[in-house]
Amino acid sequence: MPLYVVSAAAVETPFGLGPLLDRRLLLFTGKGGVGKSTVVAALAVEAASRGKRPLIVELGHRASMRTIFAAPEIGHAPRPVGEGREIWAANLDFEEALVDYVVEHARFLGRSAARTITGNRALHGLFRAAPAVRETVMLNKLRLFERHETRGRPTWGPILVDLDATGHALMLLDMPQILDGLLADGPLRGLVEVLTGLFTDPARTLLNLVTLPAEVPVQETLELYARLDRGRGVQLGAVFVNQVPRPPLRRELRPLLPGLARLAADAGLRALACDLELAARALAQEAQVRELVVRLRDALRVPLSLLPRLDVHGRGIPALQTLGRAAMRELPRLDASDPIRTLAAEDE
Q1: Is the pTM here over 0.85, yes or no?
Q2: 3-state secondary structure of 200
Q3: Cα distance between residue 281 and residue 200, in whole Å
Q4: What is the pLDDT of residues 31-46, one digit of tens each?
Q5: Phi/psi of residue 49, each to 5°?
């Protein structure tokens, strides 16, 4: 399964090349349609194969994991989805996250009483209308997942958060900093300080980007990277370039293509000529992919992981494991001898 691999030269990685999956919180964002949820699921499967206990968290209206894992309803409370593997998933609900917040800060209340309070019509309208309440309680629930323990050890790790598309994700991650300048002393300010500490600690939290090897997604990723690089507190981890096509021809055969095309045309071999034209178009697409990868490599100061184009939908966990293994294998196999090279990776 040949893949293009980007050199590690001039890359300043915050985590080395091995322990990405050792972080407590791995956040993922990117433009819609780049396969972000599939990448998150694949990395969770890979983490489980390494003996970890990953938890995938979606935010509210998202329900991709139910389809990807062919699982029953995934709700606010984490549930196993890994067909015997230690893979868990949760879909955060604002109402339940608000109840969690009330229970945590008013310990004399039970969950039923807290639900009665948050369900009060007047208060419910206030909660929904007040700025940043939704974002704060969602971030707080992620904090509760991160600190949850079983028998003195973290219950889940890593926690992979499938954030909304870029704009919503940035707003969510900006909330602690925005509120920090607005709040006086008090319980909520203390919570914001705790959240800020969690999300800006690169030893615990990394934000990863997912994109495609196409002109518009790459340009949008570069713009997003520039915005993130101008002072947001969340540390960037890696950029995953999804659905990278295989090189269509072995390198030694490429110089023969123009001559073969002329011979096919002269001999009137129309079927062969059509096949050779398709091959030429595939090579042109490959050249464009290589150019886009170089653009990413030159502009980013984080590692790239180039993922093969695989049809994982409907193929279950084995297909996800293939993609997850490829995602992590790309990071430690970087080679500084050549900015871009072709790898003959093992067939899975």
Answers
A1: no
A2: coil
A3: 45
A4: 888 999 999 999 999 9
A5: -65, -20
